[in-house]
Amino acid sequence: MRNELDFAPLYRSSIGFDRVFNLLNNAQRLQAIDAWPPYDIVKTGEDDYRIQMAVAGFAEGDLDITQERNVLLVKGQKAADGKDGEYLHRGIAGRAFERRFELADHVRVENASLRHGILSIALKREVPEAMKPRKIVIGDGSFQQAPLQIESERQVA
């Protein structure tokens, strides 16, 4: 039994949430989730995150990380191996992969590193000053405005 949510009524009564509804629709459509390479997403602070991917066997030159708007794309493509010999067992996965991460607004990649087969990508959410909450001071109720003055034409003597 498959339960699919219908977001059509929400489209009719909300404005500016198209991206959220598209994300929810796309998440429903994912049938087979590719679990390779394995990864963790860690919240390391109030506005700091880290993605860790197990990419054993890949070198820095084999990996490509791209952020375009609200999507982080991590690709891995191993360079062709020289013929080292005949494999009797091949347990270290070396297949190409592409992993997409949807990022919230104002999240950017700070840096990336590859150590001991773990690719770490540091992310930071930076909310612009204009969008941060601000404290409104409550005054005494008297508004001090400059008196309105009608400008008239000056007479030239």
From TrEMBL:
Residues 30-141 form the SHSP domain. Keywords: Stress response. Transmembrane segments: none annotated. InterPro entries: A-crystallin/Hsp20_dom, ACD_IbpA/B, HSP20-like_chaperone. It comes from the Bacteria. Gene3D superfamilies: 2.60.40.790. Belongs to the small heat shock protein (HSP20) family. This is Molecular chaperone Hsp20.
